[in-house]
Amino acid sequence: VPVPVICVDGPTASGKGTLASEIAHRLGYHYLDSGALYRLTGLAARQAGLEPEAVNEAEIADLARALPVRFGPGRVWLAGAEVTDAIRTEAAGMDASRVSAFPSVREALLKLQHEFARLPGLVADGRDMGTQVFPFAPLKVFLTAGAAQRAERRHKQLISKGISANIASLRADLQARDARDTHRAASPLKAAQDALLLDNSQLSVDESVEQVLAWWQARQ
Length: 220
Ligand code: C5P
Description:
Layout: E1 5-9, H1 16-27, E2 30-33, H2 34-47, H3 57-65, E3 69-72, E4 75-78, E5 81-82, H4 90-100, H5 103-114, E6 122-126, H6 129-133, E7 139-144, H7 147-160, H8 167-183, E8 196-199, H9 205-218
Parallel strand pairs: 1-6, 1-7, 2-6, 7-8
Antiparallel strand pairs: 3-4, 4-5
Helix pairs in contact: 1-9, 2-3, 2-4, 3-5, 4-8, 7-8
The chain binds cytidine-5'-monophosphate.
């Protein structure tokens, strides 16, 4: 039986996580936050004393291939230690973006990502869900929002977690991250040819959810 997969790809802080996890919840599907895997790989590298640099690519890919990770509802553990908040800092996002540019790291994480595709279905969010990881997914959404909205949302998200942040530097960070993600050779951030575009700059979370559910129902 083929597992139905809905892909939600898009740039940093476009609201992919909120949208994808809500759709998964509404449909009773599993949820894959693929960015968390890159964040975990970056953290594992740091813990092993490896800078996220090209000279360390092979060693970092080895870490990614055997990532000692465990997911619970809204929580994640690395080698038995909870790292739910530790992987959410901007520094962790930047490390994730660095290690994610290494082709061997992307390759190493493929199998783990495919394991999330289980019945009754999966909603997967990231940068290359529709282009590389689940190219046969029946629904691919490419989510965008203006840089100002994204910086503002990321700011709120961090503040609500008790992490202090500055909007201007967040905006600069997310633009730097987008530039690296878009221009890298390995699986750059881009919409799949058959993706449906959704700009949520002017939409509430509910409106975005309803739009994607309507697209999904139209495909059943
Ligand atoms: O989505 P999130 O901000 O958690 O992702 C962190 C970083 O991981 C991104 O900036 C991107 O470089 C990388 N990533 C990726 N492919 C994915 C998901 C995330 O390259 N599917």
